Amino acid sequence: MAQPLGPDPTRHRTFLEYGRYVHLKLAGALVAASLLAYALQRPATGPYGGTWLGYTLGTLAALIVLLLLWLGVRKRQYAKGPGALMGWLSAHVYLGVGLVVVATLHAGFELGWNVHGLAYVLMLMVVGSGIYGVVAYVRLPRRITDNLGEDTLDTLMLKIADLDRDARRVALELPNEINTLVLASSQATQVGGSLRQQLRMQHPDCPTTVALEQLIAAGVRLQVHQSQAHRTLCELLLRKQALLTRARRDVAYRARMQLWLYLHVPLSIALLAALAAHILAVFFYW
Hints:
By secondary structure, the protein is mainly α.
């Protein structure tokens, strides 16, 4: 039987597709109108922020900035349901990208080392960090799900603790140097830590990795009756290493999803302050 043509109604849609890309279309229309007006104007002194179009586009850009900042308040109001929130997110993304064009046309492609240039640079940084956030929230949740499967970070940590307990028990049958390695693996191995440590997926200096490498090397010096305990211990540490990789990957994915907020929110506040100074300076000299 032939499959029906057209979009799959059961497929999950992201906030980027909200309302059949209604906010993309609105932002595109806004950018197109701004570009057309900019192309048609013929000021004697050349295009810059002090023309009638410059003031119009500047006012429009300032309103867009205030609207986008309002999302920080609006997204915490869940009473109207997730559909409304997705709509705001969609508008936030597409208007944010359109803002770059509107603000650039407002300045007439002329920037200086002053508060006006500072406001423009901060706007680019805010939009850039927002784009990173969009990419992170679109791609990373799927990776988190694929990495964890039916587990959670808590269940992974419980399994790691169980393996540590079993490894210490098996290590009692082996020389003291191996017991020391296993104990260090159990006590010194960490998941998480500082932001830099959270963002890292590879930990070549991990005590568990070091213990496993040295344990394998020590196998040639063991007596025959210790070989079974040695193999069992290696298997336990290998399983622990695999769980640690998944746990650290989960922490790294979640840290990357949160990283943009550490940039986006402070930069947004700085942009609001610079925008206020920019507007006051314009009226002062006007």
